[in-house]
Known about the structure:
By secondary structure, this protein is mainly α. It has 20 helices and no strands.
Amino acid sequence: MPENPAIERLFERYGPAYRWYATVTVMLGTLSVVLASTIINVAVPTIMAEYRLEQDQVHWIATGFLAAMTVGMLLNAWAVARFGSRRAFLLAMAIFIIASLVGGVSNSFGLLVLARVVQGVMAGMIQPHAMITIFQVFPLHKRGQAMGIYGMGVILGPAIAPALGGVLVDAWSWRAVFFVVLPACLLAMVIAGRFLPDYREEEAPRLDWGGLVLLSLGLVATLWALASGMRRGWLDPLLFTALLGGPLLLGLFALWQRRCPNPLFDLRVFGSPGFTGGFLLSIVMGAGVFGSTYMMPLYFQQVSGFSASSAGLMLMPAGLAMAFVFPFVGYLTDRIPLARMIAGGLAFFIASMVMMRAADQTTAAIWLVAWAALGRVGLGLIMPPVTTGSLTLLPPGLIPQGSGIINFGRQTGGAIGVNLSAICVQFFSDRYWQAHPEAGHPHAFEVGFDDAFLMLLIVYLVALWPLRSMRRGLMGTDPRPEA
């Protein structure tokens, strides 16, 4: 029986079935915010047209969400300790709903980005509730089953999000993608009021406000400088200051974490051999997941000429392929060395990027669907082994901190991947359009997307270097041959 008295009372009231009531509650909350994170991608061309934006501007609706989500994840532990699991969840979900309404009725792009940023912070606070709750209510020998069921439900959400978003955009408006998640959010709040424990620690740990400010300002300045360089010029005083100041603030954040008594990150995890390689792989993984998820619906619409709903439906097989490969990855993890599985996943994703770069305006839809699915299979082979392998390298006392840092790396990599992908598309499309104005916009966009796919391909090739570092660390912990 759990040591938390609030959870004990809920078990007394609902019996053993309470475990599944709590799991469904947090799964519904997570599913809502995960849907919100990806469903908007298929609406990007429509938003670009309405607000007259370019790629290096519109990407902030995705980049802002992902960057803010990293901050929200760091706030979660403090919020749960300060307010209790139930109140923290309800507060974050209520603010998420308000931000969704603001985004849906916004009449300016600035307000739309602000709504997405607030959504991202709240999504980051909501998502870790699932892991916390499952570990609280399930005994050790049943957590794997619970995580498998929870994981399937959450992964299937992004699989259907592009199709759902595309239908809504074509049938109504891009604004509908903000409203469609609200019923699930409201239902999650209702059942959370009954099934999440109302318990908080008497002495909540202090929040590292200094570290939070340094990290937030450093990320925003760095991402903004990278995205605005072509538009403002790299020697623009404000941009040059952000370009230098952003990484400097991130460096100060790392130094602050070493000295702060209650750090957001316990940097001791990087002392474990191979963990740095796992962290770098998580950044690369995030760049591939979110960068390709952002680009492919745009490619299908702006290059191949499909509608939003058709583009969304074309992405559904890729999402389902990733969802259904996860159980097999769990099975193989106990039988195949982790580094070998990650290498295979990198190879699949690289092959997908090669094929997407080779595609053109005449490529049949069935091939585009197949190549998108190939990339998702590769990512499905990478994601669980990177997380499992990285945490395997740590002593038990540092596993919670390591888990948070791996999640942070994935989300940060996603923000960087979307940012750089949008910049590549815009820069190379503009350069080709200026040199060949007779080519037409679809072909100019095709050139830009080709170079963005090439950028992700190179990033995944470079990832073989941190994989080598992680493999050396695993050889000391994994009893299987050639680990």
